[in-house]
C-alpha cells in the first residue's frame, strides 16, 4: 500500500515538474531566444514585463490618448487614438519595432516591400490572424479585410478585390480626382 501511494505521489510530482518546465519554456526560454534574434537584427522594443509584456505601457498610452478630445477625423488622428502604440513607439524605438503580449512578440512593420510580402503571402509564414491584436478599436479601424485573413479565405477575398486595383482603373480614378 505504501508503494502505491509513493508511485502516485511520484507521478504527481513528475506531472507538476513537467508543467513547470513547460511554463518556463513558454514564458522564459522562447521569449529570450526571440529577443536575442531580434536584437541581432537591430529591432528594438519598450521594456517589458515577463508575464504581461507591454500591457501596462499600452494601457497607459491608450488612457492618455483617450483623455484628449479627438482634434479631427483625419487618418493619423484616429490611428493615434485607437492604436497609440503605432504612433508613439516607432518614434521612440524606430521602425520596425516589437511590442509584447505576455511572452508573444508582435513585430510591427511599415516598409512597403515587407508589408507587400506579408499581405500577399499565402504560405502561412506571416501570422496575420492577430492583426489588430486584441484591441477592439484596432479591429474596428482595420476591419476584417485582407489584413487579418489567412489561407483560402484570404485567397478568395484577394481574387475579389484584385480587379479594383488594376492599373488602368487606378489611372482613371487618379485622372478623375486630378491626382496625376
Question: How would you explain this protein's 3D organization?
Answer:
The chain has one domain. The protein has a two-stranded antiparallel ribbon. It has helices at 2-40, 55-67, 75-82, 85-93, 112-120, 136-142, 151-161, 167-176; strands at 97-101, 104-108. The protein is 59% helix and 6% strand. 11% of the residues are buried. The longest helix is centred in the N-terminal third of the chain and has 39 residues, at 2-40. It is elongated and about 90 Å long. Its main location: membrane. It is found in: Membrane. Belongs to the cytochrome P450 family.
**End-to-end distance, in Å?**
88 Å
Q: State which percent range the strand residues make up.
A: 5-15%
Q: Number of helical segments?
A: 8
Q: Please trace the helix and strand order, writing H or E for each element.
A: HHHHEEHHHH
C-alpha-based Rg, rounded: 23 Å
Q: Which of globular, elongated, flat, extended, rod-shaped describes the shape?
A: elongated
Average per-residue pLDDT, rounded, comes to 81
Q: Tell me the count of domains.
A: 1
Topology, number of strands: 2
Helix content: 55-70%
Based on helices, strands and strand pairing, what is the structural class?
Answer: mainly alpha
Oligomer: single chain
